[in-house]
Write a structure and sequence with these properties.
By secondary structure, the chain is an all-beta fold. The protein is about 0% helix and about 50% strand. The protein is built from no helices and ten strands. The chain has strands at about 5, 10, 20-25, 35-40, 45-50, 60, 70-75, 80-85, 95-100, 105-110. It has a six-stranded mixed beta sheet with strand order 2-10-9-4-5-6, with no helix packed on it. A four-stranded antiparallel beta sheet has the order 1-3-8-7, with no helix packed on it.
């Protein structure tokens, strides 16, 4: 059973940085598509960044290009997906979700 557990959200001032983590477990193979999404109340969930854990592609929403970076750590038998968020803006405020074949529980990011 695939499980995703996110952490790292919080409150930060505009211009600051946060790093979100997503502990991934339960995938049969170590290669899969993974992404970060965000949702503002009343709006549709949007994809922020996505990657293939076996390498080969990474995509970003135009609104975060050059500020956010998706990465992964598959060392020491742990699979963790990260989203490094720099130069945060108030419009980045949202609940952030990681996703592979399932969704994580979400973590709140508030930029003021």
């Amino acid at each position: 059973q695939v499980q995703l557990v996110e952490s790292g959200g919080g409150s930060v001032q505009a211009g600051g940085s946060l790093r979100l983590s997503c502990a991934v477990s339960g995938h049969t193979f170590n290669r899969y598509c993974a992404g970060w999404y965000r949702q503002i109340p009343g709006k549709e969930r949007e994809r922020v960044a996505a990657t293939f854990t076996g390498g080969g592609f990474t995509v970003y929403a135009d609104s975060v290009k050059g500020r956010f970076a998706i990465s992964q750590d598959n060392s020491n038998a742990k699979n963790t997906l990260y989203l490094q968020m720099n130069s945060l803006k108030t419009e980045d405020t949202a609940v952030y979700y990681c996703a592979t074949s399932v969704w994580g529980q979400g973590t709140q990011v508030t930029v003021s």
